[in-house]
């Protein structure tokens, strides 16, 4: 199962709901800490996903540039 940002956000929401129902302070605090941890994981995953996509775009651009340079070099070699 691939974990998604939505999964983490839903777990945070569930933890906050549990905190709202908790009768004991220590249980409420534990649930709120859990919610915060889930939110941190969701934020990290979102950032990682954005960075990975940006890296893929950059690498694709670099490959296209290298392919174009190779094609030009080949055309020059054929013409000479």
Account of the 3D structure:
It is a single chain. The protein has 80 residues and is mainly alpha-helical. The chain has one domain. The chain has helices spanning 5-21, 25-79. The radius of gyration is 24 Å and the shape is rod-shaped. The chain starts with a helix and ends with a helix. The mean pLDDT is 95.
Keywords:
80 residues; mainly alpha; 2 helices; 90% helix; rod-shaped
Quick recap:
Helix 1 (5-21) packs antiparallel against helix 2. Helices cover 90% and strands 0% of the residues.
What is the rounded distance between the termini? Answer: 56 Å
How many beta-strand runs? Answer: 0
The general outline is: rod-shaped
Mean pLDDT: 95
Count of separate DSSP helical elements: 2
Unreliable runs: none
Element layout with pairings:
Blueprint: H1 5-21, H2 25-79
